[in-house]
Amino acid sequence: EQLANQIAAGEVVERPSSVVKELVENAVDAGSTTIDIVIEEGGLTLVRVTDNGSGIDADDIEKAFFRHATSKLSSSKDLFRIASLGFRGEALPSIAAVAKVECVSAVDTSGLGKRLVIEGGTIRNVEDANTPQGTDIAVRDLFFNTPARLKYMKSIQTEIGHIADYVNRLALAHPGIAFTLKHNGNVLLRTLGTGDRLQAFAAVYGTTAAKAMLIVSGDHPDYTLSGYISKPEQTRANRNGITIVVNGRYIKSYIINQAILQAYHTLLPINRFPMIVLELGMHPSLLDVNVHPSKMEVRFSKEAELRQFVEECVAKALGKQRH
Ligand code: ADP
Ligand code: MG
Predict the structure, then answer these.
(1) What is the pTM of this model?
(2) I need a labelling partner for 132 at 20 to 30 A (CA). Which of 72, 218, 227, 275 fits?
(3) What is the predicted ipTM?
C-alpha cells in the first residue's frame, strides 16, 4: 500500500502545481463558492487550499486518504460521462505519500469537524476540531521523503509560474467561484466570483485586455459555444492566453487550439497568439476525459465536426469586427 502510494504519487504529483491542481479541483467538486490558495516558496514549503464547500464527513476523513476511496464514481461506466473534475481517488493518498499534510474539514456550520495529520503516508493524528464548513488542506515540505524528486524542482519563480497559470485558467473556467491566490504574502490573483466571465478575465489579464475582447457564440445540434476572443491586434507571445472550458472543466485540446488559430489565420503577426476564453457544452458521451492521468487532455468523438464548428464561430466573431 505504501509502495503503491509512492508509485501513484510519481504519476499524480509531478511538482507543486500538481498539488494545487488536485486540491483546487476537489474544492470545485465540493461546490465551493470561495477558494483561497496560499503558497510559500513556489509551493515547496506550503500549498494550502481553503474552501467553503460540502466538506468531508468526520467518519470519512481517514478514508479520503486511502487509495481509490473516491466518493465520486459509482461504476466504471461513469468514466465516460464524468461531470466532476476528480474521479480516480488517487490524489489525496498520493500527495500524503510525499508530503506532510494537515486536513481540517466540517460538513456543516455546527463547528464540529475533524483534523487529520498524515506525513509520508503515515497517519499521525486524528482529532475533533472546531472549524467552519468546508475543507482546509495544508501540504508542507513536498517531496521531503523523496530527495531525488526534490532535486528536479526548478526555481521558485518557475514553480509559482506554473501554479499561477493553472489558477488563472481555473478562475476563468469558474467565474462563479471567488478565487484568491497568494504567494509569499503577495496577492497574485483575486476574482470576485460574480459569475461574470469577462470580469474574471479582467482580474487575470487586466482591464485593458478585457475591454478589447469580442464576444463569440454559436449553436449546433451537438454543441453550444460562448466566450470571448481578442481582436487580432491584441495578441500575446505565447498560447497561455487560450483557455478552453468543456462542460465546466478547464481542458487542453490540440484540436480546438488548431481550429482557433486557423480562424485567425493571416490576421495575426508571426509568432503571436490570441487571448481566448471559450466555453463549450456537449453531451458527456461525446468526450472522453480519461486519456491522461493528469486529466487535462480530452478526446472528442466527432473531432472534424467540432473543429469546423469552433473555427466557424471564431471566424464569424472576427469578421463582425472587421466591418
Ligand atoms: P477524487 O477527487 O478522485 O475522488 P481525491 O483523492 O482527490 O479523489 O479525494 C478523495 C475524496 O476526498 C473525494 O472523493 C472527496 O470525497 C473527498 N474530498 C477531497 N477534498 C475535498 C474537499 N475539498 N471537499 C470535500 N470533499 C473532499
Ligand atoms: Mg480529486
Answers:
(1) 0.90
(2) 72
(3) 0.99
- pLDDT, tens only, 1-35: 666 666 667 777 889 999 999 999 999 999 999 99
Query: Which ligand ends up closest to the CA of 72?
Result: 1
Would the pLDDT of 70 be above 60?
A: yes
Q: Report which DSSP code applies to 219.
A: E
For residues 38-43, give the mean pLDDT.
Answer: 98
Alpha-carbon span 152 to 147, nearest angstrom: 9
Pocket test for ligand 1, best of 13, 26, 72 (most atoms within 8 A of CB): 26
The single residue listed with the C-alpha cell 467565474 is 175
- Of ligand 1's listed atoms, the one at least distance from the Cα of 88 is 3
DSSP summary character for residue 291: S
Q: Please answer whether residues 308 and 264 qualify as being in contact, where contact means their C-beta atoms are separated by less than 8 angstroms.
A: no
In DSSP terms, which residues pair with 291 in a beta bridge? none
Distance 312 CA to ligand 2 centre (A): 35
pLDDT surpassing 70 at residue 134: yes
Q: Which atom of ligand 1 is nearest to the CA of 22?
A: 7
Sign of CA dihedral 288, 292, 294, 297: negative
- Residue 175 CA to ligand 1 center (angstroms) comes to 22
Of 13, 50, 92, best ligand 1 pocket probe by most atoms within 8 Å of the beta carbon: 92
308 exposed, middle or buried (CB, 10 Å; 0-12, 13-18, 19+)?
A: middle
Q: Which three cell numbers stand for residue 141?
A: 515540505
What does the block give as the cell for 75? 461504476
The CA distance from 140 to 40, in Å, is 9
Q: Which residues line ligand 1 (CB under 6 A)?
A: 22, 26-27, 30, 51, 53-56, 64, 69-72, 86-92, 135
Atom of ligand 1 nearest to the CA of 84: 2
